[in-house]
Write a structure and sequence with these properties.
It comes from Actinorhabdospora filicis. GO terms for molecular function: DNA-binding transcription factor activity; transcription cis-regulatory region binding. InterPro entries: BetI_C, Homeodomain-like_sf, HTH-type_TetR-like_transc_reg, HTH_TetR, Tet_transcr_reg_TetR-rel_C_sf. Helix 1 packs across helix 6, helix 2 packs across helix 3 and helix 5 packs antiparallel against helix 9. Helix content is about 75%, strand content about 0%. The chain is elongated and about 60 Å long. The chain folds into 2 domains: about 50 residues, Arc Repressor Mutant, subunit A; about 140 residues, Tetracycline Repressor, domain 2 (Orthogonal Bundle). The chain is mostly helical. It has 9 helices and no strands.
């Protein structure tokens, strides 16, 4: 970490060190000292930007959500919408080693959000944003004739988000869904949904 980095760059570098440390040690056993060591800086410098572990954790969770949003934002929006939906949801699945690590960290944060109202608010905002985006995509698919009229598109969006969350959980905790099986299950789900279109 350079001496002349701006404040936001330093905060992001510390957040990245936090994610690495949580992936290695778990959230409960992660300390500011661990994060500082991973970042290669002093505890004092970490505390200059984050007054407490809780403040760092909240920034770290927001950082994980932001990374996912950035990946989703890079997906090209081109017809057919079905392919866009698959590509969007693949950005959430742990299809490569770095995203597997991210998933473990995300699950740690989600568990912590059960007893931390600020983490819970971050999680809720992230889920709402995902469902809003999927609903808009489904509306576009409906206009393009890829989905039939009469569907409750927001309910369908919430169901797909929950399905992908389930794939992520099974990937992290069982041997049932590796990357290939997760990708195939997502495609099967979306294919069934879109089969009643044109």
């Amino acid at each position: 970490m350079t001496q002349h980095a701006d404040a936001e760059t330093r905060r992001i570098q510390v957040a990245e060190a936090l994610l690495t440390t949580i992936a290695e040690r778990g959230l409960a056993r992660t300390t500011l000292t661990d994060v500082a060591a991973t970042a290669g800086v002093s505890v004092g410098l970490v505390q200059r930007y984050f007054r407490s572990k809780d403040e760092l954790l909240r920034f770290g969770f927001d950082h994980v959500c932001r990374r996912t949003r950035e990946r989703v934002g890079r997906v090209p929006i081109v017809l057919p919408v079905r392919n866009v939906v698959i590509a969007l949801m693949e950005q959430i699945l742990p299809l490569e080693p770095e995203r597997e690590k991210e998933l473990g960290v995300w699950l740690s944060f989600v568990q912590a959000s059960l007893t931390d109202t600020e983490l819970a608010a971050t999680h809720q905002a992230s889920v709402t944003e995902l469902i809003d985006g999927l609903t808009a995509a489904f509306e576009g698919a409906q206009r393009a004739g890829e989905l039939p009229p009469g569907l409750d598109l927001r309910a369908e969006a919430a169901a797909l988000a929950a399905f992908v969350d389930g794939l992520c959980l099974h990937h992290a905790t069982t041997q049932s869904f590796d990357a290939a099986r997760s990708r195939a299950a997502l495609r099967t789900y979306v294919d069934r949904m879109f089969a009643s279109g044109r």
